[in-house]
From TrEMBL, chains A, B, C, D:
Residue stretches making up the VOC domain: 11-121, 142-262
Group of enzyme by EC: oxidoreductase
GO molecular function: catechol 2,3-dioxygenase activity; ferrous iron binding
Pfam families: Glyoxalase (PF00903)
Needed cofactors: Fe(2+)
Protein family according to the UniProt entry: Belongs to the extradiol ring-cleavage dioxygenase family.
CDD domains, per database record: HPCD_C_class_II
Keywords, alphabetical: Aromatic hydrocarbons catabolism, Dioxygenase, Iron, Metal-binding, Oxidoreductase
Protein's name in the database: Catechol 2,3-dioxygenase
Keyword Calcium tagged: no
InterPro entries: DHPA_dOase_Mn/Fe (IPR011981), Glyas_Bleomycin-R_OHBP_Dase (IPR029068), Glyas_Fos-R_dOase_dom (IPR004360), GlyoxalaseI/FosfomycinResist (IPR050383), VOC_core (IPR037523), Xdiol_ring_cleave_dOase_1/2 (IPR000486)
Keyword Phosphoprotein tagged: no
Listed PROSITE patterns: EXTRADIOL_DIOXYGENAS (PS00082), VOC (PS51819)
Taxonomic source organism: Deinococcus humi
Length: 325, 325, 325, 325
């Protein structure tokens, strides 16, 4: 696809999760993580970080714990038209939907089964960035990226790069140069979208940018203070990939949230992607800490285009890195 | 006085301030600074930091903005007897008082007019140190020290050292070796009590220990977020004296609070006090920042033994350091 | 100018300063700030931050303290052609130059007298980002932005926006809506280029991104430790504009360096620029701290196209904000 | 023993380790951890933190990896006499030794086989606390405590408390109230000496106070940067016991060093020791992280009074906490 006809995707934008108990979710996201409620409806919360001018995470109470969709913001309405053209050309199912503040969402199922949504028009709200007296908990700042587990990382990565113009920042291969993970971006940071090998499509995690490493340590303290240390799954630590300081936590439905800060910029046209070997102990945590098995195995199922959930499928690459607890 | 007969003072313990508008004070101390209310009565708040097992600051609503007293904890009841002996020998006015949780307070006026209180028995309460989910604002940790402005620093210092066993950590002199300030301690830190030259006795500031420098920066952000940057009087910065990272803020009555962290220990018997020249620019703020004039001139008046306030008296040393805004 | 024919500027890229004493500069930039020497020649140092894959600051020993040029990286060689077309159309002087690692620099004088350079090809070097054992001092991370003082902020801003596609993030106006400062960007951050009102063109400051606020506090400690607190001109503090945590320091020639961290992203197509009133005390330092007069008045002169320095010219707006020391 | 006749121990003071390869140790302690060399002799390094006015860790190159002794500072020479009296009364072997800067060391073997040394006179040196430009690496600040593994924690604890006046801060018991660990102090902090159940006597770890949590994260980054992540054994994290932020690392001989910051004060006479259950997951790491098995099992052997090493002996309590990797 030529650069000119390609839809111009700006950035990862929001996620919609279903949860089984909205009050339990509220305790986690609002009371402990300090996320800010932008809107509230019976059975739904619209949350954001302090820099977000829009809601970036919607929680809907259902009898399930799934991902309804992942949304990207596009540059203009013409980009939505280009996406319709793309969907028709590739035979991808699509339809128009709407959400609060976002009247025109193009919902599509990507070739790998991921429910993705694109939108341009969005009602903006005053941010809370400098209303520090209103920040609560560790002060989550803004949506940063999403990580999706897929059974064929390389094919998925190629499609997002060729069709939607994503650029590769870092990638993990094994000794046979087979892709186990890839970090791709539109926004000039390390990634808007990460792809991780495993049965999928499933949501591996949804990530927020944090003001600094200390705010991530504070998250651990707050969860421990509330006698919920089991919500901390992995970290804190520094990633080899991305160089970011990170923490992975699990919400009451098991949805995995990453708190993330201090990566680097990738705006140069000749940025050279960084290659890691799968079993390099510094890759996942630069400090060498091993990763819990649950981190490799557990993920959230995704809503299918016609309802229900997409049945995860395993790929050719099985097993997990050696550096595991 | 011999070591044996000397009252054994453990540490600086609490302050009682009068304020003109308790709701304004509550907004400052509780809503913005995040101090924890241990008790509440009509017209009074009893506050503490997250490590304090007792209240460490009482605010009483009156038509004044003064300091009712400054309190030190002593090792046992026998030390209170020793203090009575001392008061009688030196002709210092004293009487027994009580406060909530502290049934037996020995109130005394020191030879310089400072209303000081000593107590041993105190009702302890579970601390909040590891209840991180309950910490609010920057998370003030524990009472650290008090700073009193007096017209004759050297004489006052000698009395506290000779009579009450305080030890000298650091001091400021001019070219004629006249004392402009002194930091003295009982607890093994840099100071429980600092003395600053100026008309007095007045309270220069009351200080809390903070968990780290980042929590002090967060205090600035919170005050600015609440559109009250004028509450920030000086700092943040690093002191030359004490090497601590600090911030001075002013409450709605003008009482000055210092947030303070990261000094050093002084437990060695041969600890050699550190001498600073008054006009060394690194003394007050190691980074060379100049100090606002208000910091040298403004302070809180103190309650007299028989009611009313102690009239501040100027000493021989007048003027302020050159490094001022 | 249409978007299509416009040169595609990626980001601010490097600066070349002349200095009077390279050993004094080396002590400041290398020994104290911990900048990394990428190349060294007789009379010149090529420095970078730990994330920079290129040198981003060149110091040349001359009998002057000026700015030889400010460089922007462009997307490709075609963008250099477009810049030549622009220069010829607008009658701007230009010529081809080279620097170490950068064989093809287009040097131009912008309509306001600023010596700007554009390049595409650049020799990359392995970064030091994850070689933490080699980081020295506070660990400057990467070039962030440049701030140029000009006598007519609005006209300069319009030219960079219309001709080179910069986008406005924030701006300062007075009660008559006259522009006193503007922050404009290409890279998706708050700014690549800031424009400040004053006699110019002169370099107001050159800025590096820091890993976090603590590294900025460490810079102050290091300069104070070396008994050079006078190198600290302003801060540390949080900017109202940009929300970044900052510090301004002066090198031995008086060139002003800003250390900067934690602003926000601006990639949305409908990002709405933030307007500040010139005399809002929270604008410059959110915490209300006043700015030293030198910060408004002193700046580095710039090299003229044909040698010598550009004579600074004052504009219509004179005076400085009220919130000054 | 009465308070009056008891030796007055001020604080834990230094350790002497033997190492197999002093150059490897130098790389670890000096090049990576940034410890400061106070003295250097053929085959020995005398190291200190930036606040230490004395050396606090001596490394001697031998064909072994043991602990020659652990030293405590006492208040005066009379306290050494009292210790001799104690040794004779209890039949503990003792002799006079000397070290550089410390001419009169009383070396004793405690009843549990630990080689302890007591001294009063010590040559002080200017500290480096405010020479921030000379700090290297993460900036270790001062000796904080020692942790010794012993087969009978309760008996050892009682001896140090009864005979040497240590006070209990925190302790760990199992469901039968048997002691598995104890933290005891002289200095008014959480501990000078910790006792951990296990075959002993062996040195579990030697700990330095750090300026803040960020400096501990920086240590991890530095070790990872140097491609030595395997030196990181446990953490970083926050302890349940002590509330301190911590990291455990292993030197090239396997000696375990803890970096530690932000505990609390214990000066009150009625401080009530904190009791933890052995298998409470928040005890060891408040955030619930499991501890590597090596942390429970490996420790450094200690020099016997007459040469050779003390053969570690197991006690009645065997096994390790359940919360282990
Ligand atoms: Ca800190
Ligand atoms: Fe991630
Ligand atoms: Fe103070
Ligand atoms: Fe700037
Ligand atoms: Fe320890």
């Amino acid at each position: 696809m030529t650069e000119a006809s390609r839809p111009n995707i700006i950035r990862i934008a929001h996620a919609v999760f279903t949860v089984r108990n909205l009050e339990a979710s509220r305790e986690f996201y609002v009371d402990l993580l300090g996320m800010n409620i932008l809107h509230e409806e019976p059975g739904a919360l619209y949350l954001r970080g302090v820099e977000d001018r829009e809601w970036t995470l919607k929680l809907e109470e259902k009898g399930t714990s799934t991902v309804r969709h992942l949304a990207y913001r596009v540059n203009g309405e013409a980009d939505l038209d280009a996406l319709v053209t793309l969907a028709e050309r590739e035979g991808l199912p699509y339809r128009w939907e709407e959400e609060l503040d976002r009247p025109r969402l193009l919902r599509m199922q990507d070739p790998f089964g991921v429910p993705v949504v694109f939108y341009h028009v969005s009602q903006k709200h005053p941010w809370l960035l400098q209303d520090f007296h209103l920040h609560r908990g560790p002060g989550l700042q803004r949506v940063d990226h999403v990580n999706v587990m897929v059974p064929d990382v390389e094919t998925t990565m190629r499609w997002y790069m060729d069709t939607l113009g994503f650029r590769l920042s870092e990638y993990t291969v094994d000794e046979q140069e087979r892709y186990w993970a890839a970090w791709i971006q539109r926004r000039g940071g390390v990634h808007d979208l990460a792809l991780t090998n495993g049965p999928g499509p499933r949501l591996h995690h949804w990530a927020y940018w944090m003001p600094d490493a200390m705010s991530i340590l504070r998250t651990c303290d707050i969860l421990a203070g509330a006698r919920q240390p089991e919500r901390i799954e992995r970290g804190p630590g520094r990633h080899g990939v991305s160089n970011a300081f990170f923490l992975y936590i699990r919400d009451p439905d098991g949805h995995r949230i990453e708190l993330y800060t201090s990566d680097y910029i990738t705006v140069d046209p000749d940025f050279e992607p960084i290659r890691w070997l799968r079993d390099d102990p510094r890759r996942q945590t630069l400090w060498g800490a091993r990763t819990p098995r649950s981190w490799f195995e557990e993920a959230s199922e995704m809503e299918a285009f016609d309802g229900g959930t997409v049945q995860p499928v395993a790929g050719e690459l099985t097993g997990i890195p050696v550096h595991v607890i």
